[in-house]
Amino acid sequence: MQTVLFHSTIFGPIHSRRLGTSLGVNLSPADGKVCTFDCLYCEAGFNAQGPGRAGLPPREEVRRLLREKLAQMRRDGESLDVITFSGNGEPTVHPEFEGIIEDTIAARDEFFPGVKISVLSNSTQLHRPDVCRALERVDNNILKLDSAVESTMQALDRPTSPAFSIAKVLPQLERFAGTGIVQTMLTRGSHHGVPVDNTTDEEISALIEAYRRIRPREIMIYTIDRRTPEQSLERIPVEELRAAAERITAETGIPVQVSA
Prior knowledge:
33% of the residues lie in helices and 20% in strands. It is an alpha/beta fold. The protein has a single domain (10-259), classed as TIM Barrel (Alpha-Beta Barrel). The strands form 2 sheets. Strands 1-2-3-4-5-6-9-10 form an 8-stranded mixed beta sheet. It has a two-stranded antiparallel ribbon with strand order 7-8. α1 (59-75) runs parallel beside α2, α2 runs parallel beside α3 (129-137) and α6 packs across α7. The chain is globular, with a radius of gyration of 18 Å. The two termini are 26 Å apart. The mean pLDDT is 95.
């Protein structure tokens, strides 16, 4: 079974296709996965591997480790574009997420003023006021919407809560109109013999209607880059991604960044 990618709370810097030189913050356990989605394409593997034994890192530990790393990078004259919350699961499920964002802003301002703070979120915790307040404070609030067709979203993202749905998340995403960034993973394949494809004309049309409703400041579309737990999934050619991006921008007026 494919296992978690990151075995520490602070990792990198690494080069991000979308964000540049990125210092990662992993709010999931260093030895397991905690996520409210169980995506077919997740580079950290399926949730079945379990949450491990380490537990979620406490706020004070995250603060200390981040400050130590930023201080070291400044001493060494290293460059940095962004501090990115991602890792082995969904960062916004951390019960101290809002406080951790507050600490991160303070550390960024002290050691690397001007560096962006990004959060890669699957949008499942937008019903929580504390999470929304925190996301409103970061520079790049990157929110997932892989499909606006319920059956496709359920098949591709596999939310762990039966209460999560497109109908519920779209109004929550509207809260970030003009400031949030929506990211969409495009791929196709099958799972247990059932086709999964969010690249069809019907799918792109549904996404366009959703983007119009959400009105994000930007859209990011990308495709798989590493080994995925569902190995039938395809990497979409860059030409196809660019064609989809051109159509989306033409029909919504929203800029689209393509990562291949």
